[in-house]
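Practice set, problem 2.
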Amino acid sequence: SRRKGGKYQYPVYSRPSGLRQGQTWLSRREILEGGALEGRGLEIAWVDDPVALQFMQIQGSGRIRLTDGSEIRLGYAGSNGHRFRSLGDALVRRGVYNRHQVSAAVISAWVKRNPKDGAELLLGNPNYVFFRVLGRMPAGTGPVGAMNRPITTLRSLAVDRAYVPLGAPVWLEKAGAEPFSRLMVAQDTGSRIKGAQRADIFMGTGDEAGRRAAHISDTGRMVVLLPIQRAYALAPEG
């Protein structure tokens, strides 16, 4: 909804002016419980599902369907600079679930069954992502990634740019229940993706794609394809 009311109680914020890239700012708890952004006109929309909102923040982009049937497409606009803490890991540490049981759907269901503890779980991740409204794009176009270009189903990877340059082709070999090997492109980043051999595969948009993505946590191998001079420049000394 464009306005707060009824079940639409959770704001989607644009980035505050003055917040610099890389700056550590207020935590999620301080932003939401302290009302630091209230009254500043930064609300893009209000949503009814705080878990879906937090997963959209993890992904860094998404769509909101409004009550009149129209859509708002959102892209990443920055974060508060705090370290990301996984909701799934928190539930595993508490002994609520084993690691193989955790998925976005499981976390969402648990939060709804346990509203008080669920609200605290969501606030336990201090990282907070801000969004910007994207212009009109052709129907069926994927979300906009960190390169400010639409990403492509089963061809785009989110990577740790400390190890993998954005735009680089990556040969991916994925194990698991549905193994595959294919050439992909590093086009996005994510707050939970850390390390040279970590990546998220963009599975597409919609509920079915979300369910498929929630059940992928597989081992594999990534080979980044770079010109030899660039590869030498990125290699660690010694």
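Problem 2, part (b): a different protein.
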Amino acid sequence: VVLGRGRPLFPQSDARVGLRLAGTRTFGSGVVLLRYERP
């Protein structure tokens, strides 16, 4: 679960992971896809 309720997508953790924005895509509906990767 990224947002809301249900089965977790990732295990619970307090660790921080450094990520950098690798790309974006905007769809006609207004939805924006953000793609991140580890540096």
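Answer key, part (b): Residues 5 and 14 are 19 Å apart (CA to CA). Residues 1-39 form one domain.
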